[in-house]
Design a protein that fits this description.
TIM Barrel; alpha/beta; five-stranded parallel sheet; 2 domains
């Protein structure tokens, strides 16, 4: 609700920093609200009066999302569902609604998968009445944390369990194996396909149905063999930061480039939406989501259901334009992340058969091509759509990359 952090920092860490003397958040809090206002006092101002889960779900569907993972509980120990184990939750305080239950129903009605993230492995703020204080990794707190996690699993049957706060202890200290076994067993009873990430102790990049990281994977330079997911905000913060100007948000071009790059390297993109306390999504975020959806309407065939190719990246011969590859069935998709300055490009080291068909997504008709010693030369239409990225579908798949 305070929606503030220094530019470049996470606004959702406000409850950990607002009473830490010497920090910008401490200074902002005292100047804006005063020394006597505690974090828990903000709950009376958190009303979500304009929150419309159906409208949210429609927007996410339009954006091309296939799954939605709301934050069920962040590091402030505030469940966004109606928990039996604490009154410090969204059903008893603030909006007095089961936010998670309402959004789960709306998302599933739009035929998207519903997951939930649970960040209680690190809890930096728990009011005295909400349960055991997070004296980190005490058995009492871990038991309380896992009891709420099982409640979340039982009540909402998430297709994805996205855990976080893991860096303070081991899976054994968190009893993570027992929790995940419970999750899998409950899913088996419902014949439900599920997945869990790798943040359940000091296990990132080692265990998990898929690996995760935030922001650091924006610049990953290689194809990763294990399925992974990049998670980040559209700006520098996950939680909405009113101190973050529009120029701190990604452009649509940058968002599409990042998305294609991630997919080419065996990833999904979990793109964060940071809503305001009244339940609305800021316009700059809505525009990015809508723009991404419109791009996917044309190019989604090279994204959905694809797998990495033998190489993820390349550049064109003449202009060093960035190229990213995916494959599906008998086709390879070559995404041009930059608009070519001329109508001819050459992608080095590609070898194709004589009856190869090359098409540009969103354009009717086959493209002319020539196999050269340097690679595959393709003639593009005279006019290309304005950025973002363009996708060539090459069928059948190139046999191999010609090695120098």
């Amino acid at each position: 609700m305070p929606a503030w952090a220094p530019r470049g920092e996470y606004a959702e860490w406000y409850p950990e920093r607002y009473d830490e003397p010497g920090t910008p958040t401490y200074e902002h809090h005292n100047e804006t609200y005063g020394h006597d206002v505690e974090y828990e006092d903000f709950v009376s101002r958190f009303r979500a009066e304009n929150w419309d889960p159906e409208r949210w779900a429609e927007l996410f569907k339009e954006a091309g999302a296939r799954y939605v993972i709301p934050v069920a509980e962040h590091h402030d120990g505030f469940p966004m569902w109606d928990s039996r184990y604490t009154e410090w939750d969204a059903a008893d305080k603030g909006p007095k609604r089961d936010i998670i239950g309402d959004l789960a129903a709306a998302v599933r009605a739009e035929d998207m998968r519903f997951g939930a993230s649970y960040h209680a492995m690190l809890n930096y703020y728990t009011p005295k009445y909400s349960g055991p204080h997070p004296a980190y990794l005490s058995e009492d707190y871990v038991r309380y944390m896992n009891t709420k996690a099982r409640e979340l699993i039982d009540e909402y049957q998430p297709s994805i369990l996205w855990l976080d706060g893991d860096w303070t202890g081991t899976p054994e200290q968190f009893h993570s194996k027992e929790l995940i076994a419970y999750y899998y067993n409950q899913a088996a009873e419902h014949e439900q396909a599920v997945a869990v990430n790798d943040r359940w102790g000091k296990s990132r990049g080692k265990r998990g149905d898929f690996y995760t990281q935030e922001y650091q994977y924006d610049v990953i330079d290689r194809l990763i063999g294990h399925k992974w997911e990049n998670t980040r905000g559209m700006g520098h913060s996950f939680g909405y930061n009113a101190n973050e100007p529009a120029e701190d948000y990604m452009s649509l071009d940058a968002l599409v480039d990042l998305f294609v790059d991630n997919v080419s390297k065996n990833a999904n993109l979990l793109l964060n939406v940071g809503p305001k306390a009244d339940g609305t999504i800021p316009e700059v975020q809505r525009e990015l989501l809508t723009g991404l959806g419109q791009w996917l309407d044309v190019h989604g065939e090279g994204i959905y259901g694809t797998r990495p190719w033998v190489e993820a990246t390349g550049t064109t011969l003449q202009d060093s334009l960035r190229v990213r590859f995916t494959q599906k069935e008998n086709s390879v998709y070559a995404f041009l992340l930059d608009t070519p300055p001329s109508s001819t490009i050459t992608i080095p080291r590609l070898q194709v058969v004589d009856d190869t068909e090359i098409r540009l997504c969103g354009h009717s008709g086959r493209l002319e091509w020539t196999a050269t010693e340097q690679g595959l030369r393709v003639t593009l239409p005279d006019t290309l759509p304005d950025r973002p990225a363009h996708a060539l579908r090459i069928t059948p798949r190139p046999w191999r990359l010609m090695r120098r």
